[in-house]
Amino acid sequence: MSGPEGTFALGIVNDSRQRSWIPAALLAGLAYFVVGRVFPNPADNARVWRLLAWLVSGVIFAVHFGYEHVTQRRSPRRTATHVAFGVAVGACALAATGAVRSMIAAWPAFTAIPAFLVAFVAASVLARARTTDTAGEVSAE
């Protein structure tokens, strides 16, 4: 197609950053929920299982963060918002199913706010490092 309509259509089709962030956040939230439901009920070695749950949750956080910041190249604020939303979805699901029912209203905020702060700081540092690397490459040429 030629003309402005063709260019616009190709821009939307070829721009991977236009993908919705919601499916990734929901998938991360589901993963947090599964970890929260499966890991806390071990027959023995509860401490090891708890540490393993933290490790797996950290991997989920890192993968979601990497997808948002590196693959989708989102801004630090958007990366942090999307990652925190995934954490909040998992926390809300855990609260709704009874894992922390007494804190159903507060639990998502207790988890999403620190997740936002960690993701925002990490994304900002990485964005600044990427800018510094790019500036160094340009001046070397």
Short description:
By secondary structure, the protein is mainly α. It has helices at residues 3-14, 22-38, 46-71, 76-96, 107-140.
Largest sheet, if any?
none
- Helical content band: over 70%
Strand content: under 5%
SS class: mainly alpha
Count of distinct strands? 0
Number of domains: 1
Radius of gyration: 19 Å
Count of alpha and pi helical runs: 5
The end-to-end span amounts to: 37 Å
The outline comes out as globular
Order of helices and strands: HHHHH
pLDDT averaged residue by residue: 81
Itemize the secondary structure elements and their pairings.
Elements: H1 3-14, H2 22-38, H3 46-71, H4 76-96, H5 107-140
How is this structure best described in words?
With 141 residues, the chain is mainly alpha-helical. The chain has one domain (22-140). It has helices spanning 3-14, 22-38, 46-71, 76-96, 107-140. α2 runs antiparallel to α3 (46-71), α2 crosses α4 (76-96) and α4 packs antiparallel against α5.
What keyword list fits this structure?
78% helix; mainly alpha; single chain; 141 residues; globular
